[in-house]
Amino acid sequence: MALSNHAAILRTLSLSASTRTLGAALLLLGATPAFAQDTNPAPAPADQSTGDEAALVVTGIRASLTSSANIKRNNVTIVDSVSSEDIGKLPDVSIADSLARIPGVTAQRLEGRDQRLSIRGLGPDFSTTLLNGREQVTVGDNRGVEYDQYPSEFFKNVNVYKSADASLIAAGIAGTVDLRMLRPLDQKKDTFVVSARGQMNEKDKLNPDGTRYGYKASATYVGKFANDTLGIALGVSAQSTPTQIERYAAWGFPSEPAAGGNLFLGGAKPYVQSNLLKRYGGVATVEWAPSDNFHSTLDVLYSNFKETQHLRGIEFGTAPTWGSNGVIAPGYKVENGLVTDATISNLVNVQRNDLNERKAENISIGWNNDFKLSDTIHFNVDASWSRATRTDFLLETYSGTGYNSTGAKDTVHITQNSDGTYDIVPTLDYSNTSVIRLTDPRGWGYNGTTAVVQAGFLNRPDFTDDLKSLRASFKGEIAGSVLSGWEVGGNYSRREKQSKYTSYFLCPKGGGTNCTVASGTPTSVAVPADAVLSESVSLDYLGVPKMLTVDPMKIYGLLNSVFDNRPDSLVRDNTVTEDVITGYAKLTVDGDVGGKALKGSLGLQVVHTKQGGDGQIASLLNGVVTISPVSASTSYTNFLPSASFSLELEPNFYIKLGAAQTMVRPRLDQERVTQAVSIDISKIGMGSLPQNSPFSSNGGNANLRPYQSTNIDISFEKYLGNSGGYLALTGFFKHLTDFVDPNNSVLYDFTPLLAALTPAQQAIVRGQNAQFGLVSSPANTGNGDILGVEATASLPFTVFSSALDGFGVFASGTYVDSKIRYGNSATPITLPGQSKWVATATAYYEKGGFQARATYRWRDSFLAELAGLSANPEYRLGRAEGVLDAQIGYEFKSGPLAGLSILAQAKNITDQPFVTTEATDKRLVREYQRYGRDYYLGLTYKF
């Protein structure tokens, strides 16, 4: 019963969201009316541009850049985009690669692929992703979309909106990524395209059950029927993408008394990892326009992928301060307070053969119907459903010389390399099965009350993310006024994300119960010969010549599985629901100001949210786990005004201004209702300070409000005649409020839980007022500012001389400065994913069917987010990095091979590793991942 009362914790952090208004009517003074202009954020197809652009006839890379320039030019909002070079052909290996070339967008590489996108210094938690204007769910742990789930061949444009519009539902603070599928009725002719591409990593497979070869194949059909009133687009795609990773992770660097108090490598995990991502998917679009009064479009996207990861390595504990029991030999070397060379004896190390499997499905369906009610009024209704499911199988298996440091000890020599990693050269032969056994070498196994033999561990998380949405709107024109049009509408959405976690201790069979040592569970077992693979793994890149290489699934079959019922494990199961009603209204502007063309919009969104969650609170005392179900909900309303204007000061020279209040919802795991209560009787009698209380709790906060931002954007854009080139300079400012502090703690009276203690213990706690402990849960206590500048140049060299036709460059640079503070803290934090300086440059040549391109992306150091223990996010300082990609190709324009094109690509030519360090000392490398170069060769045939 006491735990049920503890649900009140979740109601202590409720914060009211502020509302703000913006005005822009003064910009309309002196305006004269002109024709109506649609300022809906969804851009018109690139081939519908007007004026000089209609005369352009370019293909491939130049067609992609020209289409993107037209989208940017014709939008009142500030937008950047990537367009396909042809049907089924985005200009990069993946969507994330393409987005990383957009000004102000950077990508963090994980598992060898660009995955986590930051827009204007704000990570994926601050942006939203739409598919054809509809919000999407994700197979990830939170809201941030993993772009691997979308086959790049299926999209015509990928747009990043950086300023807001009232009709843009579910916009983000950083920006809104809108993936746009092609529209069959916009295509000029029926088309069938097939393509195939082979992939090879420069590294041979690092694990015997890995591969260095992959492929990608796709087919796309676009056709029009019934006098061009019915259009159908169909696409299928399959790929198998391997990645080889040499990994190194340091535990940390404690001050080591046995080494003169100098910083010492606490421990390290050198690994080799082989990934294989298999994905297949399909899309279908049916577009029907039987008359000028009705237009219907149905979009369906399905994607299924499975990723398999084999990881093998050894965890070396080295620092005596951190429990290695090692003995540091005299003669160690020190450079500026850091031990760079040492020999350590009496070490017990843990060998790992792990297997991670991840299966996910994603389906998205959208149906849009537009009715022309009169010459000036349209009614539009749009229904959509997006659903993602994901299951993981995360298997760890351990081996060593004996249980809990009882086996043979090792002597290792460590030497720091120039890149900050350490060579770790052991004395033991870790592949010798007469020495190595399946066991818990360091005695790490603990179920909360007693020791267990943890010869392995299994995590099996399961996620389901479901979003249904219904939208309706009226849009009309206004004649004879500078206010050229109006739009009103509403959107209802319901999102439910279920997160389920089960985990198991794995121990040798043969006796005992629940894997506990006290019950007689065998502490080790011999490695079976039939589990040992014929090819062994080498970690020679860091000094380990050979290690035991086994099939982890065979080892799994030899071990007992015991359910992990620790409170921290049990309370991870949760469901978060969000019911959102959005109403909006806007006026569009189209007129003249002093003879200059002005277009724009004024709008307001009113967003009412009811959010809630279900889960449980759990505690552990004297070996007894107590569980109490809990639920909570809250509701709130946000008012989000916006204004956007585009003024053509001179022919082809625009000034664009955006001002808006925007919001983005917190991470879904932060909105969870669950709490894990800890009762630590060892703290009884330690005093009245909250941190010394025997009571504490850790979990989510179902009352969290969205992050809010007041945004000002201004852009100067000069378009270079009919060349498709342009120059742009954009400044932006964001004032953030209700920023979520994930490490917030509040004082809480745990008196209802005193009954769990003995009378004597209660008396001590009451005498010291130690019943007041800390509840750790996120809260909206932060605020701050972001200021930045973006500069872009898209220059086809024909603007300088017709002799340079075919040559060109696309380059951009971004500077971002931010100051974010939690509560009353005077120390600003670093935003995850933010680099102060980001630059990208693409040089290309394309003419007569031949094309060549090289792209270099560089980013300054940044705070990198990685998956830590139990998939919780951890942050490290990411080193500055530069990545070079290149491609060369040829398309046959005539003859028997007309329609055939060949393309060769190379990715990560600089072989740039992903490196993170301690923020206080960049010599202290925490993670090092080297992926090597990837090479691709592909053929495409267009009928």
Question: Please, could you describe this protein's structure?
Answer:
It is found in: Cell outer membrane. Residues 74-175 form the TonB-dependent receptor plug domain. InterPro entries: Beta-barrel_TonB_sf, Plug_dom, Plug_dom_sf, TonB_rcpt_bac. This is Iron complex outermembrane receptor protein. This protein has 943 residues and is mainly β. Helix content is 5%, strand content 55%. It contains 6 helices and 52 strands. The chain has a 22-stranded antiparallel beta barrel. Strands 2-7-8-5-6 form a 5-stranded mixed beta sheet. A hairpin with a 4-residue loop joins strand 19 (350-372) and strand 20 (377-400). The termini are far apart. 49% of the residues are buried. The model is unreliable at 1-57 (pLDDT under 50).
Keywords for this entry:
943 residues; 22-stranded antiparallel barrel; five-stranded mixed β-sheet; 52 strands; globular
Q: Estimate the global geometry from the Cα principal axes.
A: globular
Write down how many β-strands occur, each being a DSSP E stretch of 2 or more residues.
52
Derived structural class = mainly beta
Spans of at least 5 consecutive residues whose pLDDT stays below 50 are 1-57
Largest β sheet strand count, sense and barrel closure: 22 strands, antiparallel, barrel
Q: Count up the helices.
A: 6
The overall average pLDDT, rounded, is 88
- The helicity comes to under 10%
State the end-to-end CA separation: 71 Å
InterPro entries: Beta-barrel_TonB_sf, Plug_dom, Plug_dom_sf, TonB_rcpt_bac
Domain TonB-dependent receptor plug: 74-175
Protein name: Iron complex outermembrane receptor protein
Keywords: Cell outer membrane, Membrane, Receptor, Signal
